[in-house]
Amino acid sequence: MLNFSLKTYRIGYRTIKTAVGMALGVLIAKLLGLENFSSAAIIVVLCVKNTKIKSMEAAMSRVVSCMIAILFSYVFFEYLGYNAVVLGLLVLFFIPVTVMIGTQEGVVTACVIMLHCFNSGHVTPALMLNEMILLVIGVGIALLLNSYMPNREQELEQYKKRIEGDFQQILGQFSDAIKYIDIKLEPDVLDLLNETIEKAKSIAFMDVENHFVRNENSYYHYFDMRGEQVELLYRMAELINEMNQADKIHNRCSDILAAMSRGVSSNDYTAIRLHDLYEISLDMENHDLPSNYEQLKSRAAAMQLIKEIESYLNVKSKFGSLKKY
Questions:
Q1: I need a labelling partner for 282 at 20 to 30 A (CA). Which of 143, 220, 292, 305 fits?
Q2: Which of these, 281, 180, 242, lies nearest to 273 by C-alpha position?
Q3: What 3-state DSSP class applies to 124?
Q4: Looking at the predicted structure, is the pLDDT value of residue 126 above 50?
């Protein structure tokens, strides 16, 4: 059974740009006295994309595909006739060519141009010029409108703070779960954190595609680093649930996690915490050996937890600090 739910009604940047672009396209094409002037609006709709790079790629694909479509239309219609069978043959040969040269995104626009040629009855130089001007108007307006993109810096910074707040809360819960063995950790909170990180990464990637001279985004690498840490948190949660015995080593692990929760956004806590882990490892020989299976199992989980914490800290250490452009 399908689940139907209404989403919040909102008008975004792309919707506004599409509406304005369609109106401008039709208005300019009509003022120039072009035939099929309403098609300029279709070209605008197809070329307005989420990012500058995608919009440029769409524009190039449509320009190349439409030029080929005009050439193919002239050859097929003028030499084979203006009928439905020839139209079908034209499309049959045309689409593989666009796929071969990588401009298949422009097929829909090209098919509109083909139909203009088909309905005209004659592919004349005047018609070719008419179609090219329509194409220039539609593509030009789309590129002009897409030259403005909202600054994602503030949104990315908000995601960063939100994610760091979640990390702080989760690490604090881990610390408490070690001290109070009746607390059992559930993966739900980590699942939500993972979803937030993936959303943040998608926005950071869009920001990259809005800059022609930049091929990377520090925020993307930052969120990717946090994603790696979440995978380690999953493993740490399982180990903490197995630590069901009171032990000095457990208490020290709890203290380290509590300190980590207070320094999530800091860039200088990593070396200090790694030193603390090293001290715990050296002090391990001074602790009494486990006297039963439950203690052995709990101690083994604690030792593995120390390794996971070390890996968690090393991930942050390799990343360094967030570089802003």
A1: 292
A2: 281
A3: coil
A4: yes
